[in-house]
Design a protein that fits this description.
Length: about 260
């Protein structure tokens, strides 16, 4: 499965279409995540973004990001389990912080490249092993390339190293993803997390990697609504379900 994703991703990179930076098409901000994987997008100076993920188990995670400079953004996030539902709420132990810096802006011949750190995981928190159900990216480097092809086609790749290692899985990891616009306000996306840092513990990954998919709808200027489907390969050992369903929304506005 992992070899198939590498072959397909390499083939897509070789497609002879014309590169087009999304910002050049009157968009003032670019996506910074697909489903869970970070991309090379960075919030521009003067912009603020507030977004939330609603996930199974009543999980609610909210993020606040601020564009400090054109190539530098900073953010903080926090959430908990059973926030939506009834009974006791189990808040995460610590808030997550994230920072990212764009090294190279996309051009006709070069992809966009960004580096950063994101300490926010998602889903349930397993206190005994100090890790989230979906590990935080940790430190990462991301590359993104946008193409104008019946709308837009975007290819993404990320290398990351999570600090959640108490489970005995401390390897570097790799993720790839693709996003395609469908009409003027809808896009679909698929990402594959190889799960190299989540495949050797008897309790968690089976070694198949994590396949996620999502849909994004630009409801209004600066506001998007999304639906996510996680773990389509049923890689989680501790969960009997084949896929998780979640809702995501984000509001972005320029304040300076």
């Amino acid at each position: 499965m992992k070899k198939i994703f590498i072959i397909v991703f390499s083939f897509l990179l070789s497609i002879p279409v014309y590169s087009q930076i999304l910002a050049g098409e009157k968009l003032d901000f670019e996506p910074r995540f697909l489903v869970d994987m970070p991309t090379a997008g960075v919030l521009k100076r003067g912009y603020v973004s507030v977004g939330s993920d609603l996930m199974p188990g009543g999980v609610l995670l909210t993020r606040l990001d601020v564009g400090v400079f054109d190539n530098l953004s900073f953010g903080i996030s926090y959430g908990g389990e059973n926030v939506i539902g009834s009974g006791d709420v189990f808040w995460y132990k610590y808030p997550g912080v994230n920072i990212r810096f764009k090294l190279i802006d996309e051009s006709l011949s070069l992809p966009s490249i960004a580096v950063g750190a994101d300490l926010q995981g998602k889903g349930r928190y397993f206190d005994s092993e100090s890790r989230y159900e979906i590990k935080s990216p940790g430190i990462f480097a991301a590359v993104s390339k946008n193409y104008k092809l019946l709308g837009y086609l975007s290819l993404h790749g990320t290398v990351n190293y999570s600090f959640e290692q108490k489970d005995g899985d401390g390897f570097a990891n790799f993720m790839v993803g693709i996003e395609k616009t469908v009409g003027p306000s809808v896009s679909v996306m698929v990402e594959y997390n190889f799960g190299f840092n989540d495949n050797s513990n008897d309790r968690y990954g089976k070694g198949n990697g994590y396949l996620h998919a999502g849909i994004r709808w630009a409801v209004a200027e600066g506001f998007s609504l999304g639906f996510d489907f996680r773990d389509l390969l049923n890689n989680k050992k501790w969960s009997p379900s084949t896929a998780d369903r979640g809702i995501k929304f984000e509001f972005t506005r320029r304040i300076l």
